[in-house]
Specification:
This protein has six helices and eleven strands. It is α+β, with helices and mostly antiparallel strands. The chain is globular and about 55 Å long.
Amino acid sequence: MKLSKLSILIMFLLIKEIALSQNYVKLGKLYWADHNLNVSTFSNGDEIKEAKTPEDWQKYFKQGIPAYCSMYYNAKNDSIYGKIYNWFAVVDPRGLAPEGFMVPSLNDWMGLRAHLNYDTNCRCMPPILPSAQKLKSTHEWRGNLKGENIFNMNVLPGGYLLNDGNLEGRFTQTSFWTSTPQNAAGVIGDSYTTYYVMLNSDKTDIRYDNNFDANGHFVRCATGEQLYYFSPFVPSLEEDSDSQEKEED
């Protein structure tokens, strides 16, 4: 039996969607990773420098070198939390995200926020459960606002890296790079020029801020290559600016 081009296309899309669903969650317009990025090479195979100490982290930033580190500089943590990257790694033209995927922009994150804050059952506001609570893991978060992990995104409170190379916010927050610099020129190294998003133990919503490029954040990749004929409704975007125990040797 000869298959039509349309049948082949439909089969291809179904197979691709099933494969993606094993590691990615379809929310709104995009597929979002259910884990933090954990790669030590760019998409072309070139190695990314590993910062093994806080001093390494500071050195690589001052020299403008793309770099990553493990939580508490212990590679045993990578399989659970992924790696922490500097801004140079995020914007390197060789590509930090795997082929076919991307480091989401601020608009992508705020679109996700809007989608999650819109109750698709009653199509009304306010939401029954705000965005951050739907994404946070059900464990590790300290405080009263525990996560529900409704979509199996499993966002853990891994904190973020200060510009001196030390971890901050473990068990109470986590943060992710966006691909969006605040200034139009995208100058790397200027203070407070780059947007990142954060989830906090005392906040129910996804928030964003801009911070030192010298800081380190996790990365959640996404892809938008699929054709969504039946995508959930996503409202128009309005920007509203409003840490497992550590492994030690």
